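Changelog-adjacent note: as of this version, every example in the card shows the full chain rather than a window. The one below runs 82 residues end to end.
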Amino acid sequence: MIISISLFAGLAERLGTSRISLNCSESGLTAERLKKLLSDAYPDAAPLISAAMIAVNQEYATADCPIRETDEIALIPPVSGG
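Full-length structure tokens:
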């Protein structure tokens, strides 16, 4: 399956795009596993990816949230400032 992921803030800047795709043949993909696969695919952004929250269908996801190809996925890094 091909997972399309929207990126925001520092992640989009680090990867130079606001959208990436990941080809994944794993069954039972979870939000936590997706972050691991993305960290492996984009090692320069791994610290940001590991600290980011995943939203699935516009709701923050828990680590064990299942991911399906048709889901709307967003990776939202932590923000700071005021």
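Structural remarks: The helical segments are 9-15, 31-41, 46-51.
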